[in-house]
Design goal:
Number of strands: 28
CATH superfamily of the largest domain: MoaB/Mog-like domain
Bound molecules: adenosine monophosphate, magnesium ion
Strand order of the largest sheet: 7-4-6-5-9-8
Helix content: 10-25%
Length: about 400
């Protein structure tokens, strides 16, 4: 039985956990259409400027500004018609070119007059002078200058990164491979959904919460082990999981009770680094390594499991998958409730954000039952609200919240 160890703060525990994780070796090259949510494993440098040439931002007429420098109506012959995708000839001095959005500006033109601001008559265009040079022209390199690093290694590929890579002409990208995560679920009392419950039994919900969380963060679940509360069986499952996976997540069995075997099995097979953390819910969170494979032992209570996954497993799995930005989005919102947290543990409440009627600012409410077994609180909620250790929150006070839309998304 391991000795009770000092309880780590959340920050200490995160540092310890993240320091022990290196990005996965082994990249993949994938087609751009497969890139959503993957992590870039190369730095993308623009080989060409985007746009590659000066072009028109409007449907209208390309002119040289000096040909329309005086006040009043100016008539210019229309000497050519330039549509997108075709190279123009140089603009004849003293004339205008009919031009369409995205079409290249002819040499000699520096300005586009939008068609709404002029009229065409018998091969001439009539416009109002004087013109300002450069109007309605998109300059070459205005979006991206050539040779600039536009996407950094370690960024997550959202739709806009996919589009930007395509605009540089890239058809494939090097990405980190997905983390293969083994799930080890402990508990004699558990029954799989789809079978009847016996006395004292409950359904194994954590398996599915974890399956969903892992898929949401772009990980692959490689092995699933259901183990009874037994040291030998726990050791066997953990040893096999360590051989096959990049990361192990366990559920339950991490308290210091006589029927909790996960910490003992880790200590026997590898190294146990963290046994307790000063957060609520989730105090018995466990971290270790088995034969080089990092392991996070999540408490069995369904809400504790959900919260500790969000706070600890998420950044750990992001780092493993090569991501450089690990912090979740946090916002500040005014509490609609009073809460006293008398203990030296940071508390995470299941909460919901909404706009206040009059000022339009953000308010946060909490689910009335915050017990660590009340899984319906996580379904009601759309964020976690943070109550500092020894903190008192009064109605109207601004507190920190972490929206699920960022916390539980591969793009977040
Ligand atoms: P443990 O961390 O193993 O002491 O588990 C604490 C409590 O969480 C147990 O008493 C169960 O009620 C619940 N629990 C444990 N594992 C699961 C699971 N896989 N699915 C749903 N509830 C669980
Ligand atoms: Mg248990």
């Amino acid at each position: 039985m391991p000795h009770p160890s000092p309880i780590l703060s959340e920050a200490q525990a995160l540092r310890c956990l993240l320091d022990g994780i290196s990005p996965l070796a082994g990249q993949e090259r994938i087609g751009l259409d497969q890139a959503l949510g993957r992590v870039l494993a190369e730095t993308l440098v623009a080989e060409n400027a985007v746009p590659a040439f000066d072009n028109s931002a409007m449907d209208g007429y390309a002119v040289a500004c000096k040909d329309a420098a005086r006040e009043g109506e100016i008539r210019l012959a229309v000497s050519q018609r330039i549509t997108a995708g075709l190279p123009p000839t140089p603009l004849k001095p003293g004339t205008a070119a009919r031009i369409f959005t995205g079409a290249p500006l002819p040499n000699g033109a520096d300005t586009v007059v939008m068609q709404e601001d002029c009229r065409e008559e018998n091969g001439y265009v009539v416009l109002q002078g004087p013109l300002t040079a450069g109007k309605h022209v998109r300059r070459a390199g205005e979006d991206i200058a050539a040779d600039r690093a536009v996407l950094e290694r370690g960024c997550v590929l959202r739709p806009q990164e996919m589009g930007l890579a395509a605009s540089l002409g890239r058809a494939t990208l090097a990405v980190y491979r997905k983390a293969r995560v083994a799930l080890v679920v402990t508990g004699n009392e558990l029954v799989e959904p789809g079978t009847p419950l016996g006395p004292g039994q409950l359904y194994n919900s954590n398996r599915y919460t974890l399956t969903g969380l892992l898929a949401a963060l772009g990980c692959e679940t490689t092995g699933y082990y259901r183990v009874p509360d037994d040291l030998g069986a726990t050791r066997e499952a953990l040893a096999e999981a360590a051989r096959n996976a990049d990361f192990i997540l366990t559920s339950g069995g991490v308290s210091v009770g006589e029927e909790d075997y996960v910490q003992r099995a880790i200590a026997a097979l590898g190294a146990l680094h963290i046994r307790r953390i000063a957060i609520k819910p989730g105090k018995p969170l466990t971290h270790g390594h088995i034969q080089g494979t990092p392991l996070l032992g999540l408490p069995g209570n369904p809400v504790s499991l959900f919260v500790t996954f969000a706070v600890f497993a998420r950044p750990a799995l992001f780092k493993l998958q090569g991501r450089t930005h690990l912090s979740p989005l946090t916002l500040r919102a005014r509490a609609t409730f009073e809460r006293r947290n008398p203990i030296k543990r940071r508390e995470y409440l299941r909460a919901r954000l909404h706009r206040t009627g009059d000022s339009g600012g953000l308010e946060v409410s909490i689910y009335p039952r915050q017990g660590s077994a009340v899984l319906s609180s996580t379904v009601w909620a759309d964020c976690l609200a943070v109550i500092p250790e020894h903190g008192t929150v009064m109605p109207g006070q601004a507190i920190e919240v972490m929206p699920f839309s960022s916390l539980l998304s591969p793009l977040g």
